[in-house]
Amino acid sequence: MSSENGHRAAAGGDGVAAGGDGVIRVLLAEDQSMVREALAALLGLEPDIDVVAQVARGDEVLAAARAHEVDVALLDIEMPGCTGIEAAAELRAARPGVKVVILTTFGRPGYLRSAMESGAHAFLVKDAPAAQLAAAVRKVLAGERVIDPALAAAALAEGANPLTDREREVLRAAAGGATNAELAASLHLSQGTVRNYLSTAIQKLAVRNRAEAVTTARDKGWL
């Protein structure tokens, strides 16, 4: 955003309100540079929004939020370093006043539940109109929650994630094709325990094998 808005007062310790001149300070985290720059440019057209920081990795979010005293963080889900959902949880713990908007190209209902549990205040798809995204930024700062209606309906229809944390951990580790012995070694479990977790996950997901279990769980946003 251009300097014509003038120098603003920094937000308070946890970014609980917009800057002194009413401009909302936004952090944008997105690993695809073209998408990040396009979003920043569109938001920069709004007179009351200033994208003060951009990062390409999830593990850079917290430091950037602290350094730039942001009010709202727009986080992509899938980034190197850590996911947007994990970064949201870090922000909730360390900078609870920062409002989080999760952006995704993946309309997976499980992601919505995970995002809300991590402390996100909004969940939108990236191809939402710029005006809708800007409106979401303003609403979350005002204390509202904003959820894409189609994703909300899909999440309700899908139900809760049936997998336990351990089952998810084993399935994530199995996604690369590791053997049971390799999984047991990396997760510090016995091979029998690994087999039990995989078998239970396969049964819960009503699939035939571990590969299908990984695919199904990932497609639903449960990993």
Question: In a nutshell, what does this entry contain?
Answer:
The protein is α/β, with parallel strands linked by helices and 223 residues long.
Average pLDDT confidence is: 85
* CATH topology type of the largest domain: Rossmann fold
Low-confidence segments, given as residue ranges, are 1-16
CATH homologous superfamily of the largest domain, by name? Answer: Response regulator
Overall number of structural domains: 2
Radius of gyration: 19 Å
- Which CATH top level class of the largest domain fits? Alpha Beta
Give the tally of β-strands: 6
Instruction: Report the helical percentage.
Output: 40-55%
Q: State the major sheet.
A: 6 strands, parallel
- Trace the largest sheet across and list its strands: 2-1-3-4-5-6
Percent of residues in beta strands: 5-15%
- Helix and strand sequence: EHEHEHEHEHEHHHHH
Secondary-structure-based class equals alpha/beta
| Helix run count | 10
In CATH terms, what is the architecture of the largest domain?
Answer: 3-Layer(aba) Sandwich
N→C terminal distance: 37 Å
Shape: elongated
Helix and strand layout, with pairings?
Layout (H helix, E strand, L loop, with lengths): L23 E6 L3 H12 L4 E7 L5 H8 L3 E5 L7 H11 L4 E6 L4 H10 L3 E4 L4 H12 L4 E2 L1 H10 L6 H10 L5 H8 L3 H15 L4 H10 L4
Parallel strand pairs: 1-2, 1-3, 3-4, 4-5, 5-6
Helix pairs in contact: 3-4, 4-6, 7-9, 7-10, 8-9, 9-10
Walk me through the structure:
With 223 residues, the chain is α/β, with parallel strands linked by helices. It folds into two domains: 3-157, Response regulator (Rossmann fold, 3-Layer(aba) Sandwich), CATH 3.40.50; 165-219, Winged helix-like DNA-binding domain superfamily/Winged helix DNA-binding domain (Arc Repressor Mutant, subunit A). Helix content is 48%, strand content 13%. It has ten helices and six strands, in the order βαβαβαβαβαβααααα. It has helices at 33-44, 61-68, 84-94, 109-118, 130-141, 149-158, 165-174, 180-187, 191-205, 210-219; strands at 24-29, 49-55, 72-76, 99-104, 122-125, 146-147. It has a six-stranded parallel β-sheet, with helices on both faces. β4 (99-104), α4 (109-118) and β5 form a beta-alpha-beta unit. α8 (180-187) crosses α9 (191-205) and α9 packs across α10 (210-219). It is elongated and about 60 Å long. The two termini are 37 Å apart. Residues 1-16 have low confidence and may be disordered.
